[in-house]
Design brief:
It is a single chain. Helix 6 (128-147) packs antiparallel against helix 9 (184-203), helix 9 (184-203) packs parallel to helix 11 and helix 11 (236-250) packs across helix 13 (287-304). The protein contains 15 helices and 3 strands. With 341 residues, the protein is mainly alpha-helical. The protein has helices spanning 2-18, 20-24, 35-38, 103-112, 114-124, 128-147, 160-165, 171-174, 184-203, 208-228, 236-250, 270-282, 287-304, 312-318, 323-337; strands at residues 75-76, 256-259, 263-266.
């Protein structure tokens, strides 16, 4: 009986520690990809205002995925200094002699459901455009893995000659689906994009067309800029992440983030830290990262000065009676409900 009781303690302690942030009110420093889930608790420290209304809504994230983002680290700095001294294991001192508790079933639940179930939940709660973008990117990467030796499909790469003379007008759009070959690097970039793109889309839950304008502006700037400067647009999807980080950082100036559990910095310095990281770790000039910052600054400047506005016909379409607009409004209505206090 003593052996089985000790076994139960181990299982329940694991469950308690896994749920400690919500159960005990303590927020451990999450990874970069988890920051958006904790942003709403830190809003009082933010001087800037998001592009939408209200704080960011929490979004689920499998804890195991935090292992994918250490190279682009950073986490919210937790204010809580609470400890677990008040956590009494005797509260879970159950006796299984009466057959009221199934130890084996409990252990199976902890092992099987966590990652898969949270991944599915996170995917379903991802905002519409972010979900569509990352789904299309994964589909393109999978196609390249199967049909092109794990290289991005040539038919989807940017080729202005084919786009203008052969009617392959999808190429300027599909070029942004390229995060690199399918593998760990791809997953890190996709997770990185998911974190900031979904955060910005959630901030625009009441006016999603402003988020669409932000994405179109960034994509158009990169397409024109890279073409004029003769730079390779091979990893436009990867480079777009720096643009998203800069815009996110400007709307959250003053927010403290923790870098690799080593030091704290402010959100507005984050893109510059990543640019320096590219130079130090990859040994090459971070020109593409810098261009992402430049394009992000141009967008933020013209948007904040009210020079850049969403065209009226886009707003009218979104508020119209067509079935696609209604479907989108329903999806964003679900996101808006997360912001209701």
């Amino acid at each position: 009986m003593k052996r089985r009781t000790n076994r139960l303690h181990v299982v329940l302690w694991a469950a308690a520690l896994a749920r400690a942030p919500s159960a005990l009110g303590r927020s451990p420093a999450p990874s970069l990809a988890q920051r958006t889930s904790f942003l709403w608790t830190k809003r009082r420290r933010t001087r800037g205002v998001g592009v939408g209304n209200g704080p960011l809504a929490p979004s689920p994230l499998p804890s195991s995925l935090s292992l994918l983002t250490p190279l682009r680290g950073g986490a919210f700095d937790s204010d809580s200094d609470d400890d677990y001294d008040d956590f009494d294991a005797s509260d879970f001192d159950f006796d299984d002699g009466d057959g009221m508790f199934d130890f084996d079933a409990a252990e199976d639940d902890f092992g099987d459901e966590s990652t898969t179930a949270q991944l599915v939940e996170a995917y379903h709660k991802t905002p519409p455009l972010t979900k569509a973008y990352l789904t299309a990117s994964f589909g393109a990467a999978l196609l390249g893995y199967v049909a092109n030796a794990n290289d991005f499909p040539p038919l989807l790469q940017l080729d202005w000659k084919a786009a203008l003379t052969k009617g392959q007008i999808w190429r300027p759009l599909t070029a942004f689906l390229n995060f690199g070959p399918l593998g760990l690097g791809y997953l890190m970039t996709a997770h990185f994009v998911w974190s900031y793109m979904s955060a910005l889309e959630r901030l625009n839950h009441s006016t999603p067309y402003d988020f669409w304008l932000m994405m179109v502006t960034g994509a158009a700037s990169m397409l024109v800029g890279y073409t004029v400067m003769g730079m390779s647009p091979r990893f436009l999807g990867h480079n777009l992440s720096q643009y998203l980080v800069y815009v996110w950082s400007r709307y959250h100036e003053g927010l403290e983030v923790n870098m690799f559990e080593l030091f704290n910095t402010r959100a507005e310095l984050l893109p510059w830290f990543f640019m320096a990281q590219t130079f130090l770790l990859e040994g090459e000039p971070p020109i593409l990262d810098f261009l992402g910052i430049v394009f992000g600054h141009i967008y933020h400047h013209y948007k904040s000065t009210n020079v850049l506005r969403t065209p009226r016909f886009v707003i009218d379409w979104y508020n119209g009676d067509n079935q696609y607009a209604k479907m989108l409004r329903e999806k964003y209505k679900t996101i808006s409900s997360d912001f209701e206090m």
